[in-house]
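Provenance

Sequences were taken from public entries as deposited. Structures were produced by running a predictor on each sequence independently, with no templates supplied. The record for Eukaryotic translation initiation factor 4E-1A-like from Branchiostoma belcheri is shown for reference.
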Amino acid sequence: MASAEPVPQPQETPIEAAAVEAGEEKEEASGAAAAKLDADDLKYIKHPLQNRWALWFFKNDKTKTWAANLRCVSTFDTVEDFWALYNHIQVASRLQSGCDYSLFKDGVEPMWEDPFNKTGGRWLINIQKQQRHSDLDRFWLETLLCLIGEAFEEDSDEVCGAVINVRSKGDKIAIWTHDCKNSEAVIRIGRKFKERLNLPPKFVIGYQAHTDTMSKSGSTTKNRFSV
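Predicted structure for Eukaryotic translation initiation factor 4E-1A-like:
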């Protein structure tokens, strides 16, 4: 019995072979293009913050009202936009005496009378004049990072914002909270604030209610709490 001859396999024509090769090259090119597109997209992905924030600047021009001296510089709600702003403004230690920076949640103005602030108070740190060039900028940046990074965790909703006052006799940094009667949250915020600034245990910071500051008869306000 004669053995069966092998069935001839179809041979690719030169044109078909070229088409297959071109298709493979196209697929590889498409994959490379997609990978490049993904890489390019990653360059523009911004990291959102939990809240939108507004940076305010106050310049003490005695020819204008207090409100006229206060202006909103910019708002931001991503990590990248925060650093873009921070890296393009004057650091606090180089501000003229009488100037302030304030960072508050968008929609809240840095004044006692604002509805979100008026029932609250502030944790206040007094910084000696000789500390201005060694500690002021570091303390202020860490305060900003506490705010935008929601460092106060479950108490972050109580935080309104922060203010830095640059003055000839000494500077001040304060974190403002919403409700001075929410004592447990206020104290936790103060302890975390002190911890983040790496202040020594013997360094005491005080919390003052805005109503007490507005009605004070002398130059100082009595602390409601201290840590």
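Strands lie at 48-58, 70-78, 100-105, 121-127, 159-165, 171-177, 206-209, 225-226.
The chain has six helices and eight strands.
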